[in-house]
UniProtKB/TrEMBL annotation:
The keyword NADP does not apply. It comes from the Bacteria. Residues 20-108, 194-263 form the Metallo-beta-lactamase domain. One of its GO terms (molecular function) is 3'-tRNA processing endoribonuclease activity. Pfam families: Lactamase_B (PF00753), Lactamase_B_2 (PF12706). Keywords: Endonuclease, Hydrolase, Metal-binding, Nuclease, tRNA processing, Zinc. The gene is rnz. It catalyses: Endonucleolytic cleavage of RNA, removing extra 3' nucleotides from tRNA precursor, generating 3' termini of tRNAs. A 3'-hydroxy group is left at the tRNA terminus and a 5'-phosphoryl group is left at the trailer molecule. Homodimer. The active site is at D67. Binds 2 Zn(2+) ions. Coiled coil: none annotated. This is Ribonuclease Z. Its cofactor is Zn(2+).
């Protein structure tokens, strides 16, 4: 069975705490793993969460602040140490190429794995596979930052009662799916659109067009909420979101499951993020992320 879930490796902004590691998130999407924003300590968090280097096929870095990227050095070396049998592709803002170069070659090690560099320089599609299309959108932060969005292509769900009404059974169903029609019965008459699932990763940013575009219609949205609403001025100044801002954006975008993360160490009460997100009118499923938590992509409607 295919697994689609988020494994939370770390949830702290800027400074880790006793209970929160720096950022790190692995999205399992069928047979593939996408590692987002590996901060310092990600390699050890992977071990604690049961994530292996072999599970990583793609790495997406939103921006080159340490809490989102200092873990690259360790993770890349571990991928090579473990001789991961597949190619790994890395996406990150092209303007930070010199940081990526340094992290990739921070110390000596034996390179055994093909690591493809696919930097991002503008909004748009990065890759399209049968399982998903991955795109990037510019965010608003003091250093160049991109959010990422995964969209599964729409499929079709066969409707048994309609098939039966047309007397289509057995191998003819497969033929109809392949050929688009059978004995004058078009595929559309016996099936309906199955909407592809959508996931987005939004970090670090002020409210901007990119936030709304990334969040639109997401089944699962991971978004930073560094601050609580009473510190909105700080959020705007430093290029971050509050719990209320993130939740309103998710509400307006029709998000089904909202994951808040990237918390400032100044707050000791995670419940307050939940309270403010609800007060902002978000009514879907809500997770105030904890390290090592697993969040399944919601079941199809
Ligand atoms: Zn950050």
């Amino acid at each position: 069975m295919s697994v689609r879930e988020l494994v939370v490796l770390g949830t702290a902004s800027q400074v880790p705490t006793r209970h929160r590691n720096h950022n790190g998130y692995l999205l399992r999407w069928d047979g593939e793993g996408i590692l987002f924003d590996p901060g310092e300590g990600t390699q050890r968090q992977m071990l604690r969460a049961g994530v292996a280097a072999h599970d990583i096929h793609r790495i997406c870095v939103t921006h080159f602040h340490g809490d989102h990227s200092l873990g690259l050095a360790g993770v890349i070396q571990r991928i090579n140490l473990d001789r991961v049998p597949h190619e790994v592709t890395a996406h990150y803002p092209r303007s930070g190429q010199r940081f990526f170069d340094r992290l990739r070659h921070a110390t000596a090690y034996r390179e055994t794995v093909t690591l493809t560099e696919a930097p991002v320089a503008a909004d748009g599609v990065l890759v399209a596979t049968p399982a998903y299309t991955l795109e990037a959108r510019r965010l608003s932060h003091p250093v160049e930052s991109y959010g990422y969005r995964l969209t599964e292509p729409d499929g079709r769900r066969m409707l048994p009662e309609r098939l039966a009404a047309h007397g289509i059974t057995g191998p003819d169903v497969g033929r109809l799916q392949r050929e688009g029609s059978l004995n004058g019965v078009p595929l559309e008459a016996v099936s309906e659109v199955r909407r592809g699932q959508r996931f987005a990763f939004v970090m670090d940013t002020r409210l901007c067009e990119g936030v709304h575009a990334l969040a639109e219609g997401c089944d699962l949205l991971v978004i930073e909420s560094t601050f609580l609403d009473q510190d909105e001025e700080l959020a705007v100044e430093f290029g971050h979101l509050t719990a209320g801002q993130a939740a309103r954006a998710a509400r307006d975008a029709g998000v089904r499951h909202l994951v808040l993360t990237h918390f400032s160490q100044r707050y000791a009460q995670p419940e307050e993020f939940e309270r403010q997100a609800r007060a902002a009118g978000f009514e879907g499923e809500l997770t105030v992320a904890r390290d090592l938590q697993r969040v399944p992509v919601p079941k199809r409607r």
